[in-house]
């Protein structure tokens, strides 16, 4: 859960920095905000990819175990 909060905090703080950079005409602050926001989004995508890989690996292991059990019965 804390990982989810951290991702959202990065996205929110990143947006605040980005807008603040635009308001005070600071390209550097705007860039830092964009990068921090992207960090939060990238972490979110990474979690989804990791979960999908784990799902596929579990499916593969289950299928192998099932075939192994079927061959023992025959």
What features would you highlight for this structure?
mainly alpha; 74 residues; rod-shaped
**Mean residue pLDDT:** 93
Q: What is the beta-strand fraction?
A: under 5%
Helix content: over 70%
Shape: rod-shaped
Q: Any low-confidence stretches, pLDDT <50, length ≥5?
A: none
Cα-atom Rg, whole angstroms? Answer: 22 Å
Separate helix tally: 2
Structural account:
It is a single chain. With 74 residues, this protein is mainly α. Helices cover 93% and strands 0% of the residues. The longest helix is centred in the C-terminal third of the chain and has 47 residues, at 27-73. It is rod-shaped, with a radius of gyration of 22 Å. The model has no long low-confidence stretch (mean pLDDT 93).
Write the layout of secondary structure elements.
Layout: H1 2-23, H2 27-73
Helix pairs in contact: 1-2
Briefly say what this structure is.
With 74 residues, this protein is an all-alpha fold. It has helices at residues 2-23, 27-73.
């Amino acid at each position: 859960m804390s990982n989810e909060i951290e991702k959202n905090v990065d996205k929110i703080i990143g947006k605040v920095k980005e807008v603040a950079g635009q308001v005070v005409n600071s390209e550097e602050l705007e860039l830092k905000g964009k990068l921090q926001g992207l960090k939060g989004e990238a972490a979110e995508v990474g979690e989804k990819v990791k979960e999908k890989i784990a799902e596929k690996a579990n499916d593969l292991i289950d299928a192998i175990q099932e075939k192994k059990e079927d061959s023992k019965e025959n």
